[in-house]
């Protein structure tokens, strides 16, 4: 690979060892503290997206298995978890955090094998943050009386939690930690393409001696999720995934009295003013859209750049894109790993094709993709209009659409011109403009002069069709409690 | 000795700051506790609901843009004006309610006024209590603030007619939301009288809109309206509530309903900063720290 200066930037491969990972050939469901076979005995392969090869076979839970899991969760709730002193719940969660830290390398490698994300990300972000979430919420378990003024926080009961494939363990942690801290029990359903770290987490939960049934993990497909949402024994549904499925879940729980929180899609604007520090901006845009291959609900997928610096910014971006390394996710040098599945790769391809067909101009750097597995090069579209599908629809891939603006008011109008409202980015050196812009953004998370930062203490979640409810911090407790006077 | 003929009031809907009949031209009879005809209330239409949502939408930005101090003073002003018209509200509540005594009507009115005062004081405090700085593990400034969700549809509880309506409305608008209220179907008149009070209380046009009519007609267009950001279905019966929630799901509109405790309208449990929060979004802003 050649840089703009012409000197070589070749890196020798630096693959992470897979030795810490001990894969079984088959996995059952984690119900009532035991690994059990699915009632119908149905199994599905989970594939390494970097190779296309199956890693293991995993149980597909049917309605009967979901029922067993909900019954186990209910029994565990009524059998003691709901009345366990907060200080004791806290210690269980601290144990989980510590065990995750101890086995961090194993989790990181497995996460990358099963999901395709670069090992640098699973090692430095997914796994440490997952542990941090357990550690953060452990501390809340015995401090709920201090969380809500004038109200006592009572647990809801059994929480059904459905998580996506883009941050498998991290999303499990975001869901489990606050639910358990507040005294609920859980049935967790991992995504079909990334079940393995959740099943490894089952080992951790057992090692932490969390009472049987407090957490149940049912792998499976969309029907498994639907059965879980519809189960009458569930008091609370928490879902992270597509807006389309969010609508269906909302309709399903309507009138049942079940509590619902949703964390759905996004089409974030990343807004660059002409006074911004453009080299930092370039790194921020790259991180905003190519982090986890753009398979991030809060990805900065719409770049709004002030007209006067648009050519400069696009030039710097293309130059930086030329140095991104796409390939083996286990290689420590890799910037962009595999796309999670063939289906997702197809969707990205379809939307990229629509961008070209609608008249936008596509740039991809010259890079060789691996011969097998699911890969997509980083892509950038210029000459994009707000009506183009690539400016409106969530692509969930490494594809950036560049639009321009002249005034701050125009930037606001364009940024908010979407049914989504999950995140936004603002790049300017002018403090008053940052604060004014932040006020105007219809988005739950606003990153100013940074992007894609996450922390257990910081609430995350969207406005409008990006969902409702927050995860992280004190606000992240609310979805899992009833406030009693 | 001649007895003076009473001048009866025409009860209209309150949309965009104006008192209007329905575009449909319809009305329906409202009867009092003794079965006597009290008035013909407006039987609003789908179109009236949509007009009310449009009015609420266009008023929302500037209402939310006012200072918290200003919104607090305006809510307090509502209490002041209600206090001066206490006798009218008492009479209205008394006429509407089955078996309502003068003492109960007076208690209800006083509690409704006090509820406005209570929420008025929250205007410049709820963000302090609900939001705050988050100590993230890195060199970042990180602040969470509650912001109004936008336009809120409120299906007011059926009876008693005044205190529940105020209990659901005040926490919605104090944060900067605007509201479209479907008044109690059986007892809509006091809601119209409240609207007349709001019109005199510096509440800007469109911040509160009150439609009267039949629930079965008015709830569905409100629930499925794309410009409605949150729904309070406290006044819906279970069947209608489930239908409305299903329709709201199509646009990912959050649905709120009062808990059993919150329905003890005269109790402390019926008022809470977390009711304000239920109609807010949390926005979190990050910025790096550095030299």
How would you describe this structure to a colleague?
Chain A has 485 residues and is α/β, with parallel strands linked by helices. Chain A has 2 domains: 26-264 and 463-484, 3-Layer(aba) Sandwich (Aldehyde Dehydrogenase, Chain A, domain 1); 269-448, Aldehyde Dehydrogenase, Chain A, domain 2 (3-Layer(aba) Sandwich), CATH 3.40.309. Chain A is 36% helix and 18% strand. Chain A has 14 helices and 20 strands. In chain A, the strands form 5 sheets. Chain A has a 7-stranded mixed β-sheet, sandwiched between helices. In chain A, helix 1 (63-78) crosses helix 7 (222-230) and helix 4 runs parallel beside helix 5 (168-181). Chain B has 291 residues and is an alpha/beta fold. Chain B has one domain (13-288): Aldehyde Dehydrogenase, Chain A, domain 1. Chain B has helices at residues 46-65, 68-84, 86-96, 102-122, 126-130, 163-173, 189-199, 215-224, 238-249, 273-277; strands at 13-15, 18-20, 27-31, 37-42, 132-133, 140-148, 151-155, 178-182, 208-211, 230-232, 254-256, 280-288. In chain B, the strands form 4 sheets. A 5-stranded parallel β-sheet of chain B has the order 9-8-7-10-11, sandwiched between helices. In chain B, strands 5-6-12 form a 3-stranded antiparallel β-sheet. In chain B, strand 5 and strand 6 form a beta hairpin. In chain B, helix 8 runs parallel beside helix 9 (238-249). Chain B starts with 12 loop residues before the first strand and ends with a strand. The chains are: A alpha/beta (485), B alpha/beta (291). The interface between A and B is large, with 52 and 44 residues. Strand 18 of chain A pairs parallel with strand 12 of chain B.
The residue-averaged pLDDT of chain B reads 96
Determine the oligomeric state from the structure.
Answer: heterodimer
Number of domain modules of chain B: 1
How many β-strand runs of chain B? 12
Summarize the structure.
The complex is a heterodimer of chains A (485) and B (291). Chain A has 485 residues and is an alpha/beta fold. Chain A is 36% helix and 18% strand.
């Amino acid at each position: 690979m050649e840089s703009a200066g012409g000197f070589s930037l070749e890196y020798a491969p630096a693959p992470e060892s897979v030795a810490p990972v001990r894969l079984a050939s088959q996995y059952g469901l984690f119900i009532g503290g035991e690994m059990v076979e699915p009632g119908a005995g149905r199994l599905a392969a989970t594939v390494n997206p970097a190779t296309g090869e199956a890693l293991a076979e995993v149980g597909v839970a049917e309605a009967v298995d979901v029922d067993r899991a909900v019954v186990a969760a209910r029994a565990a709730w009524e059998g003691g978890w709901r009345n366990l002193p907060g200080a004791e719940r806290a210690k269980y969660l601290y144990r989980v955090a510590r065990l995750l830290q101890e086995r961090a390398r194993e989790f990181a490698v497995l996460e990358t094998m099963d999901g395709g994300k670069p090992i640098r990300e699973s090692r430095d972000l997914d796994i440490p943050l997952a542990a941090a979430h357990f550690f953060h919420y452990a501390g809340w378990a015995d401090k709920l009386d201090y969380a809500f003024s004038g109200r006592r926080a009572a647990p809801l009961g059994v929480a059904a939690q459905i998580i996506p494939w883009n941050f498998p363990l991290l999303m499990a942690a975001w869901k489990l930690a606050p639910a358990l801290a507040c005294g609920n029990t859980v049935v967790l359903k991992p995504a079909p393409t990334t079940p393995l770290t959740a099943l490894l987490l089952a080992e951790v939960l057992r090692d932490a001696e969390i009472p049987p049934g407090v957490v149940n993990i049912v792998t499976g497909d969309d029907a498994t999720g639907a059965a879980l949402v519809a189960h009458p024994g569930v008091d609370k549904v928490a879902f992270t995934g597509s807006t389309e499925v969010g609508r269906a879940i909302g309709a399903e729980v309507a009138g049942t009295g079940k509590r619902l929180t949703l964390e759905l899609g996004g089409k974030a604007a990343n807004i660059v003013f002409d006074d911004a520090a453009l080299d930092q901006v370039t790194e921020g845009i790259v991180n905003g859209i190519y982090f986890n291959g753009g398979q991030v609900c809060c990805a900065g997928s719409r770049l709004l750049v002030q007209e006067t610096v648009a050519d400069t910014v696009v030039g710097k971006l293309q130059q930086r894109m030329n140095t991104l390394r796409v390939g083996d996710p286990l290689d420590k040098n890799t910037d962009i790993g595999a796309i999670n599945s063939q289906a997702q790769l197809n969707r990205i391809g379809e939307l990229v094709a629509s961008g070209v067909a609608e008249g936008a101009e596509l740039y991809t750097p010259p890079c060789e993709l691996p011969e097998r597995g699911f890969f997509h090069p980083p892509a950038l579209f210029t000459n994009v209009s707000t009506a183009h599908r690539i400016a409106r629809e969530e692509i969930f891939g490494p594809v950036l659409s560049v639009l321009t603006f002249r005034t701050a008011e125009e930037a606001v109008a364009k940024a908010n011109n979407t049914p989504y409202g999950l995140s936004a980015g603002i790049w300017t050196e002018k403090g008053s403009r940052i604060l004014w812009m932040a006020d105007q953004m219809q988005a739950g998370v606003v990153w100013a002069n940074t992007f894609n930062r996450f922390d257990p203490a910081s609430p995350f979640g969207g406005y409008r069709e990006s969902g409702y409810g927050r995860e992280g911090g004190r606000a992240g407790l609310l979805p899992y409690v009833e406030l009693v006077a | 000795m001649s007895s003076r003929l009473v001048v009866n009031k025409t009860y209209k809907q309150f949309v965009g700051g104006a008192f209007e009949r329905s575009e449909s031209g319809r009305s329906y009879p409202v009867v009092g506790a003794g079965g006597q005809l009290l008035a013909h209330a407006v039987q609003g239409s789908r179109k009236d609901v949509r007009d009310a949502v449009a009015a609420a939408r266009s008023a929302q930005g500037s209402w939310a843009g006012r200072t918290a101090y200003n919104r607090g003073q305006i809510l307090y002003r509502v209490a002041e004006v209600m206090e001066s018209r206490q006798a009218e509200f008492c009479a209205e509540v008394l006429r509407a309610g089955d078996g309502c005594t003068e003492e109960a009507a007076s208690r209800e009115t006083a509690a409704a006024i006090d509820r406005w005062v209570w929420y008025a004081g929250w205007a410049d405090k709820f963000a302090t209590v609900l939001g705050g700085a988050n100590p993230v593990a890195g060199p970042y400034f990180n602040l969470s603030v509650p912001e109004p969700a936008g336009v809120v549809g409120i299906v007011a509880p059926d009876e008693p007619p005044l205190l529940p309506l105020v209990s659901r409305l005040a926490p919605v608008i104090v944060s900067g939301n605007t509201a479209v209220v479907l008044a109690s179907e059986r007892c809509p008149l006091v809601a119209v009288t409240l609207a007349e009070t709001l019109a005199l209380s510096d509440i800007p046009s469109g911040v509160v809109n009150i439609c009267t009519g039949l629930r079965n007609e008015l709830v569905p267009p409100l629930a499925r309206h794309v410009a409605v950001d949150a729904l309070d279905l406290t006044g819906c019966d279970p069947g209608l509530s489930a239908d409305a929630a299903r329709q709201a799901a199509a646009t990912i509109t959050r649905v709120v309903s009062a808990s059993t405790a919150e329905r003890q309208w005269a109790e402390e449990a019926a008022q809470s900063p977390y009711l304000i929060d239920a109609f807010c979004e949390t926005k979190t802003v990050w910025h790096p720290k550095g030299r």
